[in-house]
Protein backbone atom coordinates (compact mmCIF):
# COMPACT_ATOMS: atom_id res chain seq x y z
CA UNK A 1 0.00 0.00 0.00
CA UNK A 2 1.37 3.37 -1.02
CA UNK A 3 1.94 5.70 1.85
CA UNK A 4 1.85 9.43 1.40
CA UNK A 5 4.66 11.00 3.32
CA UNK A 6 4.92 14.68 3.79
CA UNK A 7 8.32 16.28 3.64
CA UNK A 8 7.76 17.72 7.09
CA UNK A 9 7.00 14.32 8.59
CA UNK A 10 10.12 12.94 7.02
CA UNK A 11 12.21 15.86 8.22
CA UNK A 12 10.94 15.24 11.73
CA UNK A 13 11.83 11.57 11.52
CA UNK A 14 15.34 12.38 10.32
CA UNK A 15 15.74 14.88 13.13
CA UNK A 16 14.67 12.24 15.67
CA UNK A 17 17.01 9.67 14.17
CA UNK A 18 19.92 12.12 14.31
CA UNK A 19 19.16 12.95 17.95
CA UNK A 20 19.06 9.26 18.81
CA UNK A 21 22.31 8.54 16.96
CA UNK A 22 24.01 11.40 18.79
CA UNK A 23 22.79 9.93 22.08
CA UNK A 24 24.40 6.63 21.07
CA UNK A 25 21.32 4.62 20.10
CA UNK A 26 21.68 1.29 18.31
CA UNK A 27 20.36 1.01 14.78
CA UNK A 28 17.52 -1.25 15.95
CA UNK A 29 16.08 1.65 17.95
CA UNK A 30 16.00 3.84 14.84
CA UNK A 31 14.42 1.07 12.78
CA UNK A 32 11.74 0.61 15.39
CA UNK A 33 10.98 4.27 15.95
CA UNK A 34 11.07 5.77 12.45
CA UNK A 35 9.59 4.89 9.06
CA UNK A 36 12.90 5.54 7.33
CA UNK A 37 14.27 2.63 5.32
CA UNK A 38 17.13 0.53 6.65
CA UNK A 39 19.40 1.80 3.87
CA UNK A 40 18.69 5.43 4.66
CA UNK A 41 19.15 4.86 8.39
CA UNK A 42 22.45 3.13 7.75
CA UNK A 43 23.67 6.06 5.64
CA UNK A 44 22.43 8.52 8.21
CA UNK A 45 24.13 6.60 11.01
CA UNK A 46 27.49 6.56 9.22
CA UNK A 47 27.24 10.24 8.40
CA UNK A 48 26.30 11.34 11.94
CA UNK A 49 28.35 8.87 14.00
CA UNK A 50 31.28 8.72 11.59
CA UNK A 51 31.35 4.91 11.84
CA UNK A 52 29.27 1.85 11.08
CA UNK A 53 26.71 0.78 13.67
CA UNK A 54 27.56 -2.24 15.79
CA UNK A 55 25.98 -5.40 14.50
CA UNK A 56 24.08 -8.15 16.23
CA UNK A 57 21.09 -8.57 18.44
CA UNK A 58 20.18 -6.34 21.31
CA UNK A 59 21.61 -8.42 24.17
CA UNK A 60 19.32 -7.23 26.90
CA UNK A 61 17.13 -9.20 29.22
CA UNK A 62 15.45 -7.67 32.25
CA UNK A 63 18.30 -8.99 34.46
CA UNK A 64 20.59 -6.02 33.89
CA UNK A 65 17.98 -3.65 35.32
CA UNK A 66 17.83 -5.69 38.52
CA UNK A 67 21.51 -5.36 39.41
CA UNK A 68 22.41 -2.85 42.05
CA UNK A 69 23.86 0.28 40.39
CA UNK A 70 22.09 -0.17 37.04
CA UNK A 71 18.80 -0.43 38.94
CA UNK A 72 19.36 2.95 40.55
CA UNK A 73 20.25 4.57 37.24
CA UNK A 74 17.32 2.92 35.48
CA UNK A 75 14.99 4.03 38.27
CA UNK A 76 16.20 7.62 38.04
CA UNK A 77 15.53 7.61 34.29
CA UNK A 78 12.13 5.96 34.65
CA UNK A 79 11.00 8.45 37.29
CA UNK A 80 11.74 11.26 34.87
CA UNK A 81 10.07 9.37 32.05
CA UNK A 82 6.89 8.80 34.05
CA UNK A 83 6.85 12.44 35.07
CA UNK A 84 7.17 13.67 31.48
CA UNK A 85 4.53 11.18 30.42
CA UNK A 86 2.10 12.82 32.81
CA UNK A 87 2.85 16.49 32.22
CA UNK A 88 4.00 16.75 28.60
CA UNK A 89 2.06 15.80 25.49
CA UNK A 90 4.96 14.22 23.62
CA UNK A 91 5.14 11.28 21.25
CA UNK A 92 6.40 8.14 22.98
CA UNK A 93 9.89 8.21 21.51
CA UNK A 94 10.26 11.93 22.22
CA UNK A 95 9.44 11.25 25.88
CA UNK A 96 12.25 8.68 25.95
CA UNK A 97 14.64 11.13 24.30
CA UNK A 98 13.73 13.99 26.65
CA UNK A 99 13.90 11.83 29.78
CA UNK A 100 17.24 10.41 28.68
CA UNK A 101 18.62 13.91 28.11
CA UNK A 102 17.49 14.85 31.63
CA UNK A 103 19.16 11.70 32.98
CA UNK A 104 22.42 12.65 31.24
CA UNK A 105 22.21 16.15 32.72
CA UNK A 106 21.82 14.66 36.20
CA UNK A 107 24.82 12.40 35.68
CA UNK A 108 26.91 15.29 34.43
CA UNK A 109 25.94 17.57 37.30
CA UNK A 110 26.97 14.87 39.78
CA UNK A 111 30.12 13.94 37.90
CA UNK A 112 28.92 10.36 37.47
CA UNK A 113 29.30 8.03 34.55
CA UNK A 114 25.94 7.32 32.93
CA UNK A 115 25.54 3.54 33.27
CA UNK A 116 22.28 3.52 31.35
CA UNK A 117 22.62 3.75 27.57
CA UNK A 118 19.82 5.29 25.52
CA UNK A 119 19.19 1.88 23.92
CA UNK A 120 18.73 0.33 27.37
CA UNK A 121 16.53 3.24 28.42
CA UNK A 122 14.36 2.62 25.36
CA UNK A 123 14.25 -1.12 26.14
CA UNK A 124 13.30 -0.37 29.72
CA UNK A 125 10.25 1.62 28.62
CA UNK A 126 9.25 -1.30 26.35
CA UNK A 127 9.64 -3.74 29.26
CA UNK A 128 7.41 -1.53 31.40
CA UNK A 129 4.86 -1.15 28.58
CA UNK A 130 4.53 -4.90 28.15
CA UNK A 131 4.37 -5.61 31.87
CA UNK A 132 7.74 -7.34 32.27
CA UNK A 133 9.00 -4.62 34.61
CA UNK A 134 7.31 -2.05 36.78
CA UNK A 135 8.10 0.39 39.57
CA UNK A 136 7.63 -0.37 43.25
CA UNK A 137 7.87 2.09 46.14
CA UNK A 138 10.63 1.34 48.63
CA UNK A 139 9.17 0.53 52.05
CA UNK A 140 11.92 2.61 53.70
CA UNK A 141 12.50 5.75 51.61
CA UNK A 142 9.34 5.76 49.51
CA UNK A 143 11.27 6.27 46.28
CA UNK A 144 10.05 4.40 43.22
CA UNK A 145 12.40 1.80 41.77
CA UNK A 146 12.41 -0.57 38.82
CA UNK A 147 11.32 -4.05 39.92
CA UNK A 148 9.72 -7.19 38.59
CA UNK A 149 5.91 -6.88 38.55
CA UNK A 150 5.37 -9.40 41.35
CA UNK A 151 7.49 -7.54 43.90
CA UNK A 152 5.74 -7.34 47.28
CA UNK A 153 5.71 -3.62 48.04
CA UNK A 154 5.36 -4.12 51.79
CA UNK A 155 8.73 -5.87 51.94
CA UNK A 156 10.57 -4.10 49.17
CA UNK A 157 13.74 -2.20 50.13
CA UNK A 158 15.62 -0.37 47.37
CA UNK A 159 19.33 -0.56 46.52
CA UNK A 160 19.98 2.86 48.02
CA UNK A 161 18.54 1.94 51.42
CA UNK A 162 20.09 -1.50 51.32
CA UNK A 163 23.31 -1.49 49.27
CA UNK A 164 24.95 -4.90 48.82
CA UNK A 165 27.61 -5.83 51.36
CA UNK A 166 30.27 -5.91 48.67
CA UNK A 167 29.80 -2.20 47.98
CA UNK A 168 32.82 -0.61 49.60
CA UNK A 169 33.03 3.00 50.64
CA UNK A 170 34.95 3.91 47.52
CA UNK A 171 32.28 2.45 45.31
CA UNK A 172 29.54 4.17 47.20
CA UNK A 173 31.32 7.49 46.88
CA UNK A 174 31.00 7.30 43.12
CA UNK A 175 27.44 6.12 43.22
CA UNK A 176 24.14 7.83 43.28
CA UNK A 177 23.28 8.34 46.91
CA UNK A 178 20.16 8.74 48.93
CA UNK A 179 21.20 12.12 50.29
CA UNK A 180 21.89 13.49 46.84
CA UNK A 181 19.66 16.44 46.17
CA UNK A 182 19.28 15.47 42.54
CA UNK A 183 17.89 12.09 43.37
CA UNK A 184 15.56 13.66 45.89
CA UNK A 185 14.36 15.90 43.08
CA UNK A 186 13.60 12.83 41.02
CA UNK A 187 11.69 11.42 43.99
CA UNK A 188 9.83 14.70 44.27
CA UNK A 189 8.99 14.63 40.59
CA UNK A 190 7.51 11.19 41.04
CA UNK A 191 5.40 12.29 43.98
CA UNK A 192 3.59 15.01 42.00
ZN1 LIG B 1 14.77 3.04 49.64
Give the helix/strand layout:
Blueprint: H1 7-22, H2 27-33, H3 38-49, H4 63-66, H5 68-87, H6 92-109, H7 118-129, E1 134-137, E2 144-147, H8 169-173, H9 181-191
Antiparallel strand pairs: 1-2
Helix pairs in contact: 1-3, 5-6, 5-9, 6-7
The structure holds zinc ion (ZN).
Helix and strand string, N-terminal first? HHHHHHHEEHH
Query: What ligands are attached or bound here?
Result: zinc ion
Compute the number of structural domains. Answer: 2
Which sequence of strands runs across the widest sheet? 1-2
Task: Enumerate the spans where pLDDT stays under 50 for 5 or more consecutive residues.
Answer: 170-174, 178-182, 188-192
Report the radius of gyration as a whole number of Å: 18 Å
Q: Would you tell me the structural class of the helices and strands?
A: mainly alpha
Query: What general form does the structure show?
Result: elongated
- Total count of strands: 2
Largest sheet: 2 strands, antiparallel
**Average residue-wise pLDDT:** 87
Number of helices: 9
Beta-strand content: under 5%
**End-to-end Cα distance:** 45 Å
Helix content: 40-55%
Plain-language structure description:
This protein has 192 residues and is mostly helical. The protein folds into two domains: 2-49, no CATH class; 63-191, no CATH class. 55% of the residues lie in helices and 4% in strands. It has helices spanning 7-22, 27-33, 38-49, 63-66, 68-87, 92-109, 118-129, 169-173, 181-191; strands at 134-137, 144-147. Strands 1-2 form a two-stranded antiparallel ribbon. The protein starts with 6 loop residues before the first helix and ends with a helix. Residues 170-174, 178-182 and 188-192 have low confidence and may be disordered. Bound molecules: zinc ion. Zinc ion (ZN) binds at residues 138, 140-141, 143, 157-158, 160-161. Zinc ion binds at residues 138, 140-141, 143, 157-158, 160-161.
Amino acid sequence: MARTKSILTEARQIERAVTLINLGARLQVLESETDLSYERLLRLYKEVAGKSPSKGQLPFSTDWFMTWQPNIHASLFLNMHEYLNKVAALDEIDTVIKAYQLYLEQMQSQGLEPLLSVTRAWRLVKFVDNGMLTMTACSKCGGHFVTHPHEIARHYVCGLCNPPARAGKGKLAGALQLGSSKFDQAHALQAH
